[in-house]
Specification:
Elements: H1 9-13, E1 17-26, E2 29-39, E3 43-48, H2 57-70, E4 73-74, H3 79-83
Parallel strand pairs: 3-4
Antiparallel strand pairs: 1-2, 2-3
Length: 84
């Protein structure tokens, strides 16, 4: 996503997707760990770290727990994140 959420603005306005930010705390500082695009169908389209990198294993495990708790599924093309 390269944190250019503005490119997703129309999809968000139309209700096709929403963008969320996963934050974590390190040494008393709150940092953004991942940006998540969730499609209207409760499907995680993608999750990325800074500069379109893969999220850390910790971030992935938090996202997976969140997905399980809320009945979300992963978009098949985002398999690289889950395989990291």
């Amino acid at each position: 996503m390269r944190h250019r959420v503005v490119t997703y603005l129309n999809r968000c306005i139309q209700g096709e997707s929403s963008i969320s930010s996963l934050t974590c705390e390190r040494n008393g500082r709150v940092l953004r760990c991942a940006t998540i695009e969730l499609l209207r169908q409760n499907v995680i389209a993608q999750s990325r770290a800074f500069a379109n990198g893969l999220p850390s294993m910790l971030a992935i495990s938090v996202i997976e727990a969140w997905a399980k708790e809320y009945g979300l599924s992963w978009w098949p093309d985002d398999f690289l994140v889950r395989a990291a």
